Amino acid sequence: MAGQDELPEMLEFVDEFDLNDFDHVADPTGRVWQMFKIRSQPSYVFINDSGEIVHESGSLDTDALAERIQAIIDT
């Protein structure tokens, strides 16, 4: 998994799949995964203004991601 791999491998994965449009986190120890209780890729962690953490496992297309973000903004 790219997120838990070493930095050179992660950067290769990002370049290979043209995923340069957003920031990535290198987490070779799995600390970030543990902190946010992420169990698989892809996963999203949304944090609202109240600090509530909402998990979304699986992929989201552009429209679904925009809807999730807008729902947080609207609350």
The dominant shape is globular
**Helical segment tally?**
3
Low-confidence stretches: none
List SSEs in N-to-C order.
HHEEH
Mean pLDDT: 84
Number of strands: 2
Structural class: alpha+beta
Q: Please summarize the sheet with the most strands.
A: 2 strands, antiparallel
Count structural domains: 2
Strand numbers in spatial order across the main sheet? 1-2
Give me the Rg, rounded: 14 Å
Which descriptors apply to this entry?
single chain; 75 residues; alpha+beta; two-stranded antiparallel ribbon; 3 helices; globular
Descriptive notes:
By secondary structure, this protein is an alpha+beta fold. Helices cover 37% and strands 13% of the residues. It has a two-stranded antiparallel ribbon. The longest helix has 13 residues, at 62-74. The chain starts with 6 loop residues before the first helix and ends with a helix.
Brief synopsis:
The protein is of the alpha+beta class and 75 residues long. The chain folds into two domains: 1-34, no CATH class; 36-75, no CATH class.
Task: Explain the layout of strands and helices.
Layout: H1 7-16, H2 31-35, E1 43-47, E2 53-57, H3 62-74
Antiparallel strand pairs: 1-2
